[in-house]
Design brief:
The protein is of the alpha/beta class and 458 residues long. It is built from 14 helices and 16 strands. The strands form 4 sheets. A 7-stranded mixed beta sheet has the order 4-12-11-10-7-5-6, sandwiched between helices. It has a 4-stranded mixed beta sheet with strand order 1-2-3-15. It has a 3-stranded antiparallel beta sheet with strand order 13-14-16. Strand 8 and strand 9 form a beta hairpin. The longest helix is centred in the last third of the chain and has 25 residues, at 425-449. Bound molecules: pyridoxal-5'-phosphate.
Length: 458
């Protein structure tokens, strides 16, 4: 094993090779901009890991937290509550789709997913007509639901998940519903193909399946894999038909990212359980939630001596400071034209990227919904062959954007754009220009520097 001569840094960063890590340290933020300790101003093109909705230091969110701080910073939700947290639960009941309305708080997206897994499992064990064989989950190919062990078990991304296989449970694995890399020789539409694939699995496994777990519409960490329109709707129908719960993980897609408050609304779907996080507090403080429909919640109701309560609970779940930020964030998101503006701006950004890059020889696909976009860079556009991973093309592009004032973080060779929803058209124009120029310059340099076989050989 190489002994890397690296400074003994105390702060160990997630998903980061510490032997090869140029740390950008942020001093402060304002709106969509961050300032490093070296004084460089950077546009926050990924909303501080997809969660900052209304920009940094928003006056209303700052004030809401300060105001709550004058009352109480933290109380537990085990056996007691805080009015602010109760108020937030009511607000979430109002704005989540259909009859979703029982809100179980946790502190991060992974924990919201863990709670959903245990909740759905316990539901089948103890509902009036129990189905004790329902102990497994169906997860999609390349799924990402977080980094705790249950969430990793659902995950299907090679580098993130495969290593941990010996300590994981095994889900029934569905397809990757990707329209860019369709399996060879299908003679139906992508929607029909993937619906059929999922139906085959449900038909075979429904008696052992507690739930289907999916990121609706867009699988973010998989590289903005964008499902064929209608798939979520079809999966909802299949779940109803085969008596399997539907858990939608909207940790990434929730709170306006797809132009609607929740991605599920784009296909008029109400999941049985909804997981939310990231943007819930406007991206200010750690808070997540698992929201259930009444039939789930009711299965946990019984005399105290019956031991049917949900056996789960996090120390900081429902923290009042986070709840205050979340209420202030929802106040903004539910202002009359907020989401329409997001939809318009998302379209602007997408069109701007498409106009300049759609014919670029190393841009394979431009995908996503509204304010969550992915640009997949490939060695060969015709065969869709990726670049060799050692070239780290995505990373190099993002290094270049940083030099030009834009902070973005790639997923492999997919360039991810997830700007704060409040970004103005002028800021989105700047973001698009820097990203387009960086992709063009980096791929041009690459062609000059690498042997042609790197880029052209099969
Ligand atoms: C869809 C999805 N689910 C769950 C998570 C995990 O959330 P957290 O990082 O807050 O644990 C993420 C994080 O990116 C996500 O994108």
């Amino acid at each position: 094993m190489t002994n890397y001569a690296v400074p003994q840094v105390a702060h160990w960063h997630g998903f980061t090779q510490m032997a090869d890590h140029d740390s950008l340290v942020i001093k402060d933020g304002e709106g969509c901009w961050l300032t490093t300790t070296d004084g460089q101003k950077l546009f926050d093109g990924v909303s501080s890991l997809w969660c900052n909705v209304h920009g940094h230091r928003h006056a209303k969110l700052d004030a809401a937290i300060q105001d709550q701080l004058k009352r109480v910073a933290h109380v537990t939700t085990l056996g007691m509550s805080c009015q602010t947290t109760d108020d937030l639960a009511e607000r979430l009941k109002e704005i989540t789709p259909g009859d979703l309305g029982h809100v179980f708080f946790s502190s991060d997206g992974s924990s919201a997913v863990e709670a959903a897994l245990k909740m759905s499992f316990q539901y089948w064990q103890q509902r009036e007509d129990p189905k004790p064989s329902k102990t497994r989950f169906l997860a999609l190919g390349s799924a990402y639901h977080g980094d705790t062990t249950g969430a990793v078990s659902l995950g299907g991304i090679k580098y993130f998940h495969q290593l941990f296989a010996p300590i994981l449970f095994s889900p029934v694995r569905g397809p990757i519903p990707c329209s860019y890399r369709l399996p060879a020789e299908i003679n139906v539409t992508p929607l029909e193909h993937y619906t059929h694939e999922i139906e085959i699995l449900l038909k075979k496994h429904h008696e052992e399946l507690a739930a289907v777990v999916m990121e609706p519409l867009v699988q973010g960490a998989a590289g903005m894999i964008t499902h064929p329109r209608g798939l979520l709707h079809n999966v909802r129908e299949l779940c109803d038909h085969y008596n399997v719960l539907l858990i939608c993980d909207e940790v990434a897609t929730g709170f306006g990212r797809t132009g609607k408050m929740f991605a599920c609304e784009n296909e008029s779907v109400t999941p049985d359980i909804l997981c939310i996080g990231k943007g819930l507090t406007g991206g200010y403080l750690p808070m997540a939630a698992t929201v259930a429909r009444p039939h789930i919640f009711d299965a946990f109701l019984a005399p105290a001596t019956d031991s049917r309560q949900f056996f789960h609970g996090h120390t900081f779940g429902g923290n009042p400071l986070a709840a205050a930020a979340a209420i202030a964030s929802l106040d903004l998101l539910t202002e009359s034209s907020y989401l329409e503006d997001v939809e318009r701006k998302g379209e602007y950004l997408r069109n701007r990227i498409i106009d300049d890059l759609v014919d670029h020889p190393h841009v394979g696909d431009i995908r996503g919904r509204c304010m969550m976009l992915g640009i997949e860079l490939v060695a060969d556009r015709t065969t869709r062959r990726p670049f060799p991973s050692e070239l780290q093309v995505g990373r190099s592009v993002c290094r270049r954007t940083v030099c030009n004032g834009v902070w973005i973080r790639p997923l492999g060779d997919v360039i991810i754009l997830m700007p704060p929803l409040i970004a103005t058209e002028a800021e989105l124009e700047m973001l698009a220009t820097v990203v387009i120029e960086s992709i063009k310059a980096e791929t041009a340099d690459l062609i000059e520097q690498t042997t042609p076989s790197h880029l052209t050989d099969a």
